[in-house]
Every structure is written in structure tokens, then in C-alpha cells.
Amino acid sequence: MNPEMDRLLREYRDYIEDYLKNNCFVYPQEPQQVLFDAMRYSLLAGGKRLRPVFVFDFCRMCGGDWKQAAPFAAAVEMVHTYSLIHDDLPCMDNDDYRRGRLTNHKVYGEAMAVLAGDALLTGAFSALATADLDAETRIQGVKILSRCAGELGMVGGQVLDMQSESRECTPQEVEDIHTRKTAALIQAACCLGVLAGGGSSEQMDSAKTFAHSLGLAFQIRDDILDVIGNAEELGKAVGADGNKNTFVQLHGVDACQEMVRIYSQKAEAALAAFPDHRFMESLCRGLINRNH
Amino acid sequence: MNPEMDRLLREYRDYIEDYLKNNCFVYPQEPQQVLFDAMRYSLLAGGKRLRPVFVFDFCRMCGGDWKQAAPFAAAVEMVHTYSLIHDDLPCMDNDDYRRGRLTNHKVYGEAMAVLAGDALLTGAFSALATADLDAETRIQGVKILSRCAGELGMVGGQVLDMQSESRECTPQEVEDIHTRKTAALIQAACCLGVLAGGGSSEQMDSAKTFAHSLGLAFQIRDDILDVIGNAEELGKAVGADGNKNTFVQLHGVDACQEMVRIYSQKAEAALAAFPDHRFMESLCRGLINRNH
Questions:
Q1: In this complex, do A34 and B129 lie within 8 Å of one another by their Cβ atoms?
Q2: Degrees, nearest 5: CA angle A237-A240-A241
Q3: pLDDT for A292
Q4: Given an 8 Å threshold on Cβ–Cβ distance, is A150 in contact with B115?
Q5: Closest CB to A115 among B130, B145, B159
Q6: Nearest CB to A135 within list B115, B139, B173
Q7: Helix B3-23 to helix B70-88 angle, to the nearest 10 degrees?
Q8: H or E stretch at A275
Q9: Which of A105, A143, B238, B241 could be bridged to B129 by S-S, CB 3.0 to 4.6 A?
Q10: CA atoms of A224 and A228, how far apart (whole Å)
Q11: A148-176, pLDDT tens digit by residue?
Q12: A156: chain B residues, CB-CB within 8 Å
């Protein structure tokens, strides 16, 4: 990534960090401070802020003022954060650490972690509804995010993933899981960006294709790294997904590397619908090739 | 309640039952059927459907076509249902039964119950967004529901309630808990009805006052019944809230009965803003006096 691209990436990330820190769940007069603390503990835990970056850059590529899309970017990040908090719970993945810090329930207890997740999910829709954009745009945003995050999207994918643990899946089933579990929220981010930027319906379709392809490329790359990668870079134990139906177990490492290449190309091809897509192209290349 | 009122109540209830049964989370082609089953197990578990009835009747009182408000009514009921599923979890109240049936996590497991709740909450906003009402009305609906259900409303009240268990609260603190935990979602229901019915801002304010007063009257009456009521009628063990800060423990039974009377009167007075409020008045009287 060249210096100009790098500068834009930093600008996006700084903007969302400031926005989340200063505008989200700050109520000095309210008594339930521990809830706000729990929500902000996970919301402000850093990370790459990829989904907000997608919102911002798809908005910019469509000719919009990307800073106006900050509530949309924050909403997607809130949904992503709530899903991590609930995924880490003892009854789900039972993780004690995430990104080197104690998970939410290890700090605040299980009950508070459930509630902090619930409030982040609710807060995401509040953020969409109060954005400084016209009513039609905001309600389309609610439609996009609720569909991508809900029973047909992210949560549906989580359920399929849980169910798959006890049996062998077909390649199509594994793709279905990750289309919902991983790609759906990336799709929400890209589509919310197109929406906020006033993009065309052709651009909306291209954003969907882009997100779907990139989401699968990510996931397959993750599966490969889980087998051949090193634990330090990924930040989790190598082979932790041992029992699951992964792309690598179904297709082997070589075929998976070819799949990553094909999906990445498909994602890049979809960017042709956006005039100035050098940043997004460069970002995706960096993300996919980061650990190879 | 006279026969005419009774007929309207049955009409509201039948309509929401049919709507939830036929329109919500029915996707025969999708693979994650167990998720839809878990969501519908709790969503279709009966109950009085009070919140949908509030949505419908406030819409009707404002001169709107109440059947058009069905997606709004369904949304409030989805939020209510998700909150019950999460409240019943082992890490929260750890309840095995609700309304005489096994709780969600006892049937589907804890992980699925967390996810079913998450999907119901997400689905509520999808229902609001896809209602057959103009964009401005729908986005105002998202604002109302997200605010009443979120960190400043129902979830915030749940947290305050949890925190109160380990110490003595002031009367103001106990009122704050129930204003958020119980009254906020009733307020969402009444306000969504006014919104869908095209009511005035004066009617919106009256709906808020009504809901706040009725919510507190309900809660205080519940606290009284917990001390003097019988277990069969309430459907839970008498004295189960023994350790909590209740209105009765703070004020005594006699003062609480007076408080129920005052809050009920305040709720009824707020109904003056609505021309034909006989049904709502009669419903509230029936609800408050039901077990005395």
C-alpha cells in the first residue's frame, strides 16, 4: 500500500475511533455506568475496523461525503462487536481472551456480557436511525443491516456453523455457512456505504458481489492459515478449529489457495463499477496477501 | 369489560397471533430451521399480547387503520420475547419454566437461546423497516423502539435491577429501575401506535405519560401480589423476589395500594387526549384490578 493509500486508511480508522469514543454510549448522568463500560470495553478494543473502512470507502467511491456515513459505519461495528461478545460466551465458544485482552464476560460477568451485546445490537439501529441522512436512506440502511445480521444472515450462519460441528458437510454447505457467517456483515458494510454515498443500483449489486467474494476469500485464507500459519500472526492457537468442516479439509491446501485467488479476482472485478477504486483494490490485496 | 370491548380485544389478539404465525420467520427453503423453530417456540408461546394490543389501539384511537400497524406490533412483541429468552438464561434468572412451558434454553440449549434472542431483536427492526408505512414513519419507529429497548431503556433497567440485588435502594432508584425495565417497552408500544396512526405530538406525549404511569402501576401491583397474592394466579412462586428491592418492602402494602390507585388514575387521565378511549380505559381497569 503506497503512502497516499496508507494516509486514507489511517484517516478512516482515526475517524471511526474518535466517533465511537466520543459519540457512543457516553451518558455521564445515567446510573447504569457499568453497562456503558461493558459496551465500550469491547467496542473500543481496537481491531482493524475493516467494516467501517468499507462503509467509508464505498461511500467515497460513490461520490458521497464519507464522514456523513460515520453513524452507518459505527452501526456495523456495533453489530460486529456484539457478535464477538456473544460468540465468546461460555455457552458458545467459551473464550477467555480476544485480541490479547480478557473477553467481555471474563471482566464483567456473563449476565452483563449478554446485556452489553443486546444493547450494542439495539444501539446499532439507533445509530442508523439518527444519522444525518434522509429518511428513505436511513430506513434502507435498517433493512440492509437487519437482513444481513439476522436469521438469514450472520446469526443464521452462526447456527449452521454450530450444527456442522457434529457431522460432515458438503462443499456447498460450508460455503453457505461462511456466506452468512462472515460475508453477510461485510456485505452490509459495503452496501451501507453505497447507500450513504447515493450510489446506483448497479453499484449496489457490485458491492454485494464484491463483499461475497471477499468474505469467502478471507475465510478460505483463514482456514489455510489455521493449517500452515503461525499462531503469533493470527493471534489464536493453530489448529483450534480442528474438528470443524473447513475449506482446507474439504479441498486441500493447494485447491484452497487457488480458490482464494479466484475469489479475490472476482472481488477486484466487481470494483470496476466504482470509478476510483484504487484504495479498495490495494486494501484487499494487502488483506488477502498479508500473511503469505 | 363489556361484550363490545371484549370483541375488540379478541380481534386484536387473533390478528397478531395470525400475523406472527404466518409472517414471521417462515422460510421453508433455508437450512437453519432449528433457529426459526427456537425463535417461533418463544414468539408463538401465547401470553396476553398486551404490547401489540397497545400498538393497535393507540393507532385506532388516533384515527389510523390499526391492521397496518401489525409490523410495528410484531416488532414490539419480538423485543419482548427476546428479552424473556435472555432473562431466563442460566447466567441471568436461570428459569426452567415460563407460562408452564420449558424455557427456550431448556429445549434448544443455551447457545441457540442466545442466538434466537439475538435474531428476534434483529428481526424486530426488520419488521419496522418493511412495514407498509412511509419512510419517515418507519424511521421514527426505529428511533422509538431502539431507544426504549436499549441501554437507556429496557436493557439499562435490567442492569440496574441486577445491581440493586446486592444493596438497598432508595424509592427513586426502584422507580428508575421499573421505569426502564417495565415501562419503557410499554411506552414503545403506545408511541408506535400513535406514530402508525398519525397522531399529534400532544397525543405522543400523552401516550408516554400513560405508558409510564401504567407500567409503574403494573409493577407495584405485581410487588403487592408477590406478598399477598396466590401462586396459582401469578404463575410463579410467591415471595420469589424475596431479596429484591420492591415497592412493598420500601413503602408497605397499604401505601403501595394507594400508589397503584394514583398511577392508574394518572394513566386514565392521559387517555383524555384520545377521543374514543373507552376500550383502553376498560382494558387498564381490568388489568390492574384483575387479581384483587
A1: no
A2: 145
A3: 40
A4: no
A5: B159
A6: B139
A7: 70
A8: none
A9: A143
A10: 6
A11: 999 999 999 999 999 998 888 999 999 99
A12: 30, 32, 35, 119
Alpha-carbon span A197 to A73, nearest angstrom? 12
Distance from CA of B115 to the nearest CA of A (A): 6
Q: Are strands B101-102 and A101-102 parallel, antiparallel or unpaired?
A: unpaired
Closest-CA distance, B147 to chain A, in angstroms, reads 7
- Continuous H helices in chain A: 3-23, 33-43, 50-61, 70-88, 104-108, 110-129, 135-149, 154-164, 171-178, 184-196, 201-228, 231-234, 247-251, 253-270, 278-289
pLDDT, one tens digit per residue, over A227-242 is: 886 545 555 555 555 5
Taking a C-beta distance cutoff of 8 angstroms, is the pair A174, A247 a contact? yes
Q: B122–A27: do the CB atoms touch at under 8 Å?
A: no
ipTM above 0.85, yes or no: yes
Looking at residue A232, what is its pLDDT? 52
CA distances from A169 to A154, A245, A247 (A): 19, 6, 10
Q: How far apart are CA A8 and CA B23, in angstroms?
A: 45
Coil, strand or helix: which one is B203? helix
Give tens-digit pLDDT for A270-282: 999 999 999 999 9
Strands A97-98 and B97-98, sheet pairing: unpaired
Task: Spell out, as residue ranges, where chain B has pLDDT lower than 50.
Answer: 231, 243, 291-292
Location of C-alpha cell 482456514: A223
CA gap B226, B209 in Å, rounded = 26
Give the distance from residue A114's alpha carbon to the nearest chain B alpha carbon, in angstroms: 8
The span from the CA of A114 to the CA of A266, in Å, is: 38
Q: Is A101 helix (H, G, I), strand (E, B) or coil?
A: strand
The CA–CA distances, whole Å, from B149 to A37, B157, B184 equal: 18, 10, 7
Name which of A135, A149, A155 is nearest B135 (Cβ-Cβ).
A135
The CB-side HSE value for B76 (13 A sphere, CA atoms) comes to: 30
Candidate from A121, A135, A136 with C-beta closest to B118? A121
Per the document, the length of chain B is 292
The helix (H) or strand (E) run that includes residue A97 is strand A97-98
What is the pTM for the complete model shown? 0.95
CA A36, CA A25: separation in Å to the nearest integer?
6
Which of B118, B130, B137, B195 to mutate: most A Cβ within 10 Å?
A: B118
Chain A residues whose beta carbon lies within 8 Å of the beta carbon of residue B156: 30, 32, 35, 119
DSSP string covering B98-127: ETTEE-HHHHH-HHHHHHHHHHHHHHHHHH
The enclosing H or E element of B73 equals: helix B70-88
How many other CB atoms are there within 10 angstroms of residue B52's CB atom?
Answer: 29
Residues 6+ apart with CB under 8 A from A35: A112, A115, A116, A119, B151, B155, B156, B159
User: Cell numbers of A177, please?
Assistant: 455457512
